[in-house]
Design brief:
This protein has 252 residues and is an alpha/beta fold. Helix content is 33%, strand content 25%. It folds into 2 domains: 7-142, Tetrapyrrole methylase, N-terminal domain (Cobalt-precorrin-4 Transmethylase, domain 1), CATH 3.40.1010.10; 145-250, Tetrapyrrole methylase, C-terminal domain (Methyltransferase, Cobalt-precorrin-4 Transmethylase, Domain 2), CATH 3.30.950.10. The strands form 2 sheets. It has a 5-stranded parallel beta sheet with strand order 3-2-4-1-5, with helices on both faces.
């Protein structure tokens, strides 16, 4: 990463799936204690993501000294090179974008993080690239998995059972993990549940959880799976993006 960071304190504030109710009082306090809140822009087709962050700040930040600074999020190389290497390069670019956006400013900086900053999110890894290293504070919000199970009014685990949290990529490449009662799947852009034999499986799926456009489907995978596949393209087209997750369980 080129340049030296002026960030002394970095607060990573979990905002769940973007609902104002998914941010905690501690998260709101961290935003108001920040000198700068960084707002990433992901292009015109995903402008809603920046708009949601701006709206969250408008409703939560009362400190007139807190400034919002926007920056263009670098695009990840989608070439044929090794996936992990491409992600590492992307994280380097994002860390450099943080530093460039601040242009020598810094002090106390906050970022609003979708989901949970410690669960399948790379903000902590990107922060580790900053030099000199800032003091990093993580303020969790309501995670997507909490919002999913709450929306369906189901427990995450079966009675005395285990839960495995994984990604769509791993489910697609490796199948159902051994000794797993229930499987929570995140970061699945391609609906990897399609690769499973649906017999004896149930699914609880949700998109835009906790928001006005919340979409839910549940039932036997053989029945609910096709409904999910039919709904996702329309939801993505309407918003320019989609954030969804699901829970799978074997019927007892």
């Amino acid at each position: 990463m080129s340049g030296r960071s002026a960030i002394r304190h970095l607060a990573l504030v979990g905002i769940g799936t973007g609902s104002p109710g998914h941010m905690t009082q501690a998260g709101i306090a961290a935003l108001n204690a920040a000198d700068v809140i960084l707002i990433p822009r992901k292009g015109a087709d995903k402008a809603d993501l920046a708009d949601l962050r701006r709206a969250l700040c408008a409703g939560a930040v009362t400190n007139p000294a807190t400034a919002l600074v926007e920056f263009d999020l670098p695009a990840r190389d989608e070439g044929t090179a090794d996936y992990l290497a491409r992600v590492e390069d992307w994280h380097d670019a994002i860390a450099a974008a943080w530093v460039a956006a601040l242009a020598g400013r810094g002090g106390r900086v906050a970022l609003l993080v979708w989901g949970d900053p410690a669960l399948y999110d790379s903000s902590l890894r990107i922060a580790s690239r900053l030099s000199p290293a800032p003091q990093v504070e993580v303020i969790p919000g309501i995670t997507a998995l909490q919002a999913l199970t709450a929306a369906h009014a189901v427990p995450l685990n079966a009675l005395a059972g285990a839960v495995t949290i994984t990604t769509g990529r791993r489910l697609r490449d490796r199948g159902w993990p051994p000794d797993c009662d229930r499987l929570a799947v995140m970061l699945d852009a391609d609906c990897a549940f399609r690769t499973l034999d649906p017999g004896g499986l149930r699914i609880w799926w949700g998109a835009f959880l906790g928001m006005p456009g919340q979409a839910l489907e549940a039932g036997p995978l053989a029945e609910a799976g096709p409904r999910i596949l039919a709904r996702r393209p329309a939801l993505r087209a309407a918003h320019g993006w989609i954030m969804d997750t699901y829970l799978l369980a074997r019927d007892p």
